Amino acid sequence: MNFFWYNIWVFFEMRYFFLFVIFVFSCEERELDEVQISAHKFEILSLGDSYTIGQGVCEDCGYPRQLIDSLRVLHSLDTFNLEVIAQNGWTTSSLLSNIEVSEIEKKNIVTLMIGVNNQYWGLPFDQYENEFEELISTSISLTKSQNSDDLIVISIPDWAYTSLGQNYNLEFISGQIESYNQFAQNYCYENNISYVYITDITRLGLNQPELVAPDGLHPSATAHTLFVNRILPVIEQKIYRTQ
Q: Distance (Å, rounded) from C-alpha 75 to C-alpha 44?
């Protein structure tokens, strides 16, 4: 190959090389843009009582925190933040009095699990009915959409099936818990609100003691994981329905 043709060959080789480099960088920029476009931020609020804070298990073992951790793993490009308004022993009245609507930033999703302490303290059932409806309205007002589509109600666990619950009348407790859950379920179905039933998991506590926390009363971290398995798909469907 003489010098002239060699220069021609080098010219075309370099030309295609630079075209290739430009193509690669263009693809990377498009991929970066796609990542930036697809990233979203979601805010979740969990309302409730001792079950919601994960009483009896580690700080990160309750179902709200496990939900957030699962979402972060499954949707690593997105950001998920959690706020919890709950405390051990809270009744429907306690929860209502501790929600400062004007001070809470609106959320993409709100979850609600409440009522076990109404049952435990033997409060009037109609108090639960009235305050449950009020909590539904309050919960909806805390969503960004102001729509019941972004609210999830979770059934009350049955503490009769724990070692401490054995000191009480199992059938009586379980029957009352069922009444509370049946009211909540009917209300949710009539008003197109998502309702997730997890009570049956807690009723395995006597045969599967690993589902009960070391305190002998609350669900274990394993039980909370099983709650998440049912709640997670509902949340995913809601937050990604318009994405």
A: 15
Task: Give the integer Cα–Cα distance in Å for 57 and 149.
Answer: 30
DSSP letter (8 states) at residue 128: H
Calculate the CA dihedral of residues 62, 115, 130, 188 and round it to 10 degrees. Answer: 60
Q: Decide: 150 and 238 in contact? Cβ < 8 Å.
A: yes
**Does residue 22 have a pLDDT over 50?**
no
Class of domain 40-239: alpha beta
Region 37-50: what's the mean pLDDT? 91
Task: State the angle between helix axes of 125-141 and 170-190 in degrees (0 to 180), rounded to the nearest 10.
Answer: 40
pTM of the model: 0.84
Check if the beta carbon of residue 150 is closer than 8 Å to that of residue 110. yes
Confidence of residue 37 (pLDDT cuts 50, 70, 90): low
Strand ranges for 87-147 from DSSP E? 109-112
What mean pLDDT do residues 102-130 have?
A: 97
Residue 119 Cα to chain centre, angstroms: 24
